[in-house]
Specification:
The chain is mostly helical. The protein is about 75% helix and about 0% strand. The protein folds into two domains: about 100 residues, no CATH class; about 325 residues, no CATH class. Helix 9 packs parallel to helix 11 and helix 11 packs across helix 18.
């Protein structure tokens, strides 16, 4: 009776929420209401908020990728407003309302997902007592306990149906296309050194990472999901756009990670094909389609690389330096210091403390500090061997769960699984050369999505079995 009463009051709760947000927003818009467009935007805002709360997977995309657009000077946001926090709150409210409306179920995180991450959090909290970088440590710890934790566990609630995953993926691609249009509209130079970013905020690394993720979604999910030739042609066009973003940004890691992941997926599928039959006509449809789509994507990437090569001067120049054996001396120094911390006592056992690498390697303590640019070494140096083991187990169990679940997948389920595995693998390579655990929270998002995918698969099997009985 009580649950039904709360469910009946959901529209009232929506109205109260929108009224509150509108009331808070009005003082910031009041001096701009002379423009009719601003009035229209203000009136449209509650409608947009309603859609975001109703479909929380949409603000969740904006939450985990807020860094690529939130500093755009064209937004003219008040200084206190952080879009990462804002969209995180909206996604949380959406999850709560969906639970009240019984659209999604409360779930308990799997032990193989929860336990290693819980140990990492406990080690981070404990290590704050002895870190020599309390300013950096406090910022890093707060982000880990809030934003990063939410990024990891939210998919368990959000992705309980194929429709929610599809909305999530489509939102990802739409944001990537917005990035592409922004880059093109700003103008580009040919045969000239310079990194490229989108929205005046993403940085070239953020653009390279995000476009790489969008490319896998387009390739292994959307291209395989659409049926008509005109839609498939359209998706291939979008593949060329995302490939262009990856190359024009100037980042090496994104392109290298893309190549490695596609190679892994190809080898995995060819291995399955070889076990059954080498003839194309007698392959399982899912393996044949993954193989064909991989070839199409690689051809689209090659076409982009050759046809628009004059825009990729920075990428080619940096790739030549990498091939010639020239590496970033600062990055190598940080790897050496991290390994030194891991091999020393007692830091190898208990770590330098959360945020402590900044003081250990460079002798200063700032809010964002300095990190190793390798997620394994970063965790190992600051949280010690137990932190490194816990994180390694978290990653290993994630992959084991993904491939074990994939063996039972059929049709579109298989495409979803391959997409999540490729995204997880891509982000793991990326996190091995850029940022720390908080900067790479989408790595944990794809990990959480794998466990959500497993739960969704087993629930569907249970429903089918029940129907057969």
């Amino acid at each position: 009776m009580r649950a039904g009463f709360i469910k009946d009051k959901v529209p009232v709760l929506y109205f109260a929420l929108f009224s509150l947000v509108l009331g808070i927003s009005l003082p910031f818009f009041i001096d701009k209401l002379e423009n009719p467009l601003n009035i229209f935007i203000l009136l449209l805002f509650p409608v947009a908020l309603y859609a975001l709360v109703k479909y929380p997977e949409i603000p969740f995309v904006l939450f985990i990728n807020a860094g690529i657009y939130k500093a755009d000077p064209r937004l003219h946001l008040p200084e206190f407003l952080d879009l990462t926090v804002l969209f995180g709150i909206i996604a949380t409210i959406g999850i709560i309302f969906s639970i009240i409306r019984k659209k999604i179920r409360l779930v308990i995180p799997p032990m193989k997902m929860f336990l290693p991450f819980f140990i990492i959090m406990m080690l981070a909290i404990t290590s704050f007592a002895y870190t020599e970088a309390p300013i950096c440590g406090r910022e890093k710890l707060l982000r880990l306990l809030t934003l990063t934790s939410f990024a990891m566990f939210a998919p368990l609630f959000l992705f309980q149906s194929e429709h929610s995953i599809k909305r999530f993926f489509i939102t990802y691609v739409l944001l990537a296309m917005g990035m592409f249009l922004d880059v093109i509209s700003r103008g580009l130079y040919t045969n000239k050194w310079g990194f490229v970013e989108a929205f005046g905020s993403s940085g070239y690394l953020g653009m390279g990472k995000f476009s790489g993720e969008a490319l896998f979604i387009l390739s292994f999910y959307l291209l395989l999901s659409v049926k008509t030739k005109i839609y498939k042609t359209f998706i291939i066009g979008l593949l060329i756009c995302t490939a262009f973003l990856s190359l024009v940004s100037g980042t090496k890691a994104s392109v290298l990670a893309l190549a490695i992941v596609f190679l892994v997926i190809l080898v995995y599928n060819i291995g399955h094909i070889a076990k059954r039959n080498l003839f194309l006509k007698r392959m399982q449809a899912k393996n044949r389609e993954i193989l064909i789509v991989s070839i199409i994507t690689l051809c689209a990437f090659a076409f982009t690389t050759v046809y628009f090569k004059e825009y990729f001067f920075t990428f080619f120049s940096r790739a030549k330096l990498l091939i010639s054996g020239e590496f970033d001396s600062v990055r190598l120094y940080q790897y050496e210091k991290a390994l030194e911390a891991l091999s020393s006592f007692p830091s190898g056992l208990v770590g330098l403390g959360i945020g402590g690498f900044s003081m250990f390697a460079h002798g200063y303590d700032q809010k964002r500090g300095v990190y190793v640019h390798n997620i394994f070494l970063d965790i190992g140096a600051e949280l010690g061997i137990f932190g490194l083991i816990s994180f390694s187990l978290l990653i290993y169990w994630g992959f084991a769960t993904a491939f074990r679940t994939l063996k039972k997948a059929k049709d579109t389920q298989y495409y979803t699984g391959i997409t999540l595995i490729s995204l997880f693998l891509f982000m793991l390579f990326w996190a091995s050369v850029h940022g720390n655990i908080n900067d790479n929270r989408s790595l944990l998002t794809w990990l959480g999505s794998i466990y959500a995918y497993k739960r969704m698969m087993y629930q569907r099997e249970a429903v089918v079995a029940f129907g057969q009985d």
